[in-house]
Design goal:
- The chain is α+β, with helices and mostly antiparallel strands and 395 residues long.
- It folds into 2 domains: 301 residues, Endonuclease/exonuclease/phosphatase (Deoxyribonuclease I, Chain A), CATH 3.60.10.10; 56 residues, no CATH class.
- Helix content is 20%, strand content 32%.
- It has 8 helices and 23 strands.
- The strands form 6 sheets. Strands 1, 2, 7, 8, 9, 20 and 23 form a 7-stranded mixed β-sheet that branches.
- The radius of gyration is 21 Å and the shape is globular.
- The chain starts with a helix and ends with a strand.
């Protein structure tokens, strides 16, 4: 059976190009904001500073009811891997209690299972109109913990693809993280890490947000690196919050430059919810992402694939009644080619917005069909449309 499935995978990842008359091997890389994919338990962050930081047990999300069984102290000081070495501490999550059966949302197993089914459907379809299969790599935004990701990849729409997981708990004040899932038959992880984004408010107090997740490995035998992002929101106003996203852009560029310097042949993908548009200072000035291939150079090696879509008026969400393209994919220049070669290059990038993901009526007609309207579960999918890029090469 495994051999048969592998054969199907090979067949389904080769498509015919009528334009050039060549067979192509293809792969989809994409991501989805799963809009508050929480489990149904009131949870807390637990850090066991006696364990190695790459051990998933070092920092994990646990039910509050489990705290009494642990040798841990409540900790209200600054949270950081280095500061908590040797300590066992817990911290309550800001949004966890909101997603429980006892909350006004009445967030129970039935709603949770529907959320999983919905998100799995969207993920399985990313790029499938071009590849006839599910994506090889998928970034996830707004996941509470590793358990919800494990539950997600077990859904019927995804289970047959045998996805692996890369996830680290962050110090985000709400308790949400970014993650990466990947088809094990096509991608192998060589290294992964999280980079803390340390930002401070006007009073000099630390604000806790999502980490940048860095994953390197081999996609169909090509060396690649993925950088998953969920930058600080516009809470408090776009201008007032902009320095936080600029800081995220600087940190991302440092990480991308580091990987590229170590091995210039590595193909880089930075993606996620930037909470800014492609023309905003954070991606354009601080990350220095080019808007067209003509701008690419050794000193400006990253291309924002979403810039042309933004100029055409494509949006991935509506923020305060204004359309925005916050969901972006930025790639290194060695992924840009005018012809099909023996190595992967960009074939197409899109914001995925089929009819079922679009709100059809009411004040939010035309917006993404989100899961929540206040405390009411709508049966929808996300408040963001997902993004993806299709890669191609000679088989």
């Amino acid at each position: 059976m495994r051999r048969f499935l592998s054969l199907l995978t090979i067949i389904s990842t080769v498509i015919i190009s009528a334009q050039q008359g060549k067979l192509r091997k293809v792969a989809t890389v994409g991501f989805l904001n799963v809009e508050n994919l929480f489990d149904v338990y009131n949870s807390a962050d637990y850090i066991d500073g006696t364990k190695d930081r790459k051990n998933p047990a070092f920092h994990r999300s646990i039910p509050v009811d489990s705290i009494k069984f642990l040798e841990a102290e409540k900790y209200d000081g600054e949270w950081s891997d280095g500061l908590l070495t040797g300590k066992k501490v817990v911290r309550y999550q800001g949004s966890s209690k909101e997603f429980t059966p006892e909350s006004p949302k009445n967030y129970d197993q039935k709603i949770y299972q529907q959320k999983l089914t919905n998100e799995a459907r969207v993920i399985s379809e990313l790029g499938s109109q071009y590849t006839k299969t599910a994506p090889a790599i998928v970034g996830l935004i707004e996941v509470e913990n590793r358990q919800v990701i494990e539950d997600l990849i077990k859904q019927p729409a995804l289970a047959k693809y045998d996805y692996g997981i890369v996830h680290y708990n962050s110090y985000d004040y709400r308790g949400i993280d970014v993650a990466l899932i990947y088809q094990k038959r096509r991608f192998s992880v060589t290294n992964s890490l999280k980079k803390e984004l340390k930002i401070y408010n006007s009073d000099g107090k630390r604000e806790y947000t999502r980490d940048i997740l860095v994953v390197t490995g081999f996609l169909d035998n090509e060396k690649v690196a993925f950088f998953m992002n969920h930058w600080p929101s516009r809470r408090g106003g776009e201008a007032a919050s902009l320095p936080k996203r600029n800081a995220a852009a600087v940190l991302l560029k440092q990480q991308m430059d580091s990987v590229r310097t170590a091995d210039p042949s590595t193909k880089l993908f930075a993606m996620g919810d930037f909470n800014d548009d492609p023309v905003s200072p954070s991606p354009k000035v601080h990350l220095q992402a080019a808007s067209s291939p003509k701008e690419l150079s050794d000193s400006k090696p990253y291309l924002n694939l979403m810039y042309p879509l933004y100029k055409k008026g494509v949006a991935s969400l509506a923020y305060q009644d204004a359309p925005n393209l916050f969901d972006q994919i930025i790639v290194s220049k060695n992924l840009i080619s005018d012809e099909v070669t023996k190595e992967y290059s960009v074939y197409k990038s899109e914001i995925y917005a089929p009819a079922y993901l679009v709100n059809k009526e009411g004040n939010y007609k035309g917006y993404p069909f989100r899961s929540w309207n206040g405390d009411k579960f709508t049966g929808g999918y996300s408040d963001h449309f997902p993004a993806f890029v299709v890669l191609q090469k000679e088989p």
